[in-house]
Amino acid sequence: MRIVSFLKTTTFRLALLYAGLFCASFVGIFAVVYWTTDTLATRERQRVIRADVESLRGVYETEGLKGLGTALLERTGPGLAGDTLYILATPDFNPIAGNAKSWPANAESDGPWMTFGIDRSEFGDPEPHRAQALHVVLLPDGFNLLVGRDMRAQERFQEALASAFFAALVVIVALGVVEGLVMSRAILGRIDAINQGAERIMRGGVKHRMPVRGRHDEFDRLSENLNRMLDEIERLLGSIRAVTNNIAHDLRSPLSRLRNRLETALAEHDSARRHETIEHAISEADELLATFNALLSIADAEAGTSRGNLLPVDLVALSQDVAELYEPLVEEQGLVLEKSIAGPATVSGNRQLLFQAIGNLIDNATKYGAPGGRVSLTVRNGNGGPEVVVADRGPGIPAADRERVLERFVRLDSSRTTPGNGLGLSLVAAIARLHNAVLNLDDNGPGLKVTLKFRPAAA
After folding, report:
1. Displacement of CA 12 from its chain's centroid (Å)
2. Average pLDDT, the chain
3. Where are the domains of the chain?
């Protein structure tokens, strides 16, 4: 059964198909070679016969019948004629000179050319031969002259060529089958390794990766792409687990407070205090809704559902709009928003998401900036493309925590007292990935400097 399954594999069928195509090509080449050699040999034989006939015709015209007979005698002496056939016959086809006993019977005629069988047994060859000859009538006497050549040498060459062809064809078919077996075995081994790896992953071994042999061939590239896909899947699964845990921990407290406030409002008899309690509950609900809206925005950006809406966006005009909206909020916190916006800076993106990303960066810088300090917004054309830089003069983020703060619901201990849900930078990171941008967090000495590096929009 394994052999039957093996013979049904695509690789084995492809090997047989290539072998069949090669055999067909070989047959076509052989047919061309066979026809070409046969044609060239026939033309050369007929050229030699014509030259011989013209020579004998010239002898007849200058020396007459007697001179022609002498010429034939000289050419058909012992060991002289070889494969050449000469017959000089009367008008009624009775031979009078030459090396044949009778005029050929049952000859195949093609104009002046005749093809017929000859007996070479007197020369020690028992097999019948075929010959081709040119028949001319010598005028004015009407004698018949036949000059021909034995075709046995050409036929033997063609037989040897055909034998070599069939032998080569058998070898090609055999090699094609063996090559198909070997190639199928090698390819199936690598495919089976990938299938076994996939089955192991489906059984729960998410850490397993496809084997890469370092040959840099198609299977290595396939394994590398699958491994990158598995890394991304593992990252997403880890992110989902982390989000689930974080939601359970971070949202339990506000939900508990919301429930307690509503219970308090239900039991409160003073309408003013009840109204105040309900307002606090609404504020808690608004914070929860903001958290879930941020989660939905991150999920939408990471899923790439907005990728089809990417259009050329002018970062200069967009940043000016963001600055105009957030400048009053920055000033309320006792900070100054410094703007350094220079163009042109155009990227391919989703304007709404980019607006939200830059706004989140300014909002974070405002929350964690030093009182009386500055928040700077810079838009410029960098070495690799447009850049948006938002910097503050606050405590900054330690280098060891800069990757971690891009995860959802991650808040450093120093920021626990500040309102927020730990999703701002996560959303910025997701929007950056959607736009194929690079998000860098650096030290601003003091403070934090966040840089979004974009690729230039396609022309």
Report:
1. 21
2. 80
3. 10-156, 209-249, 308-453
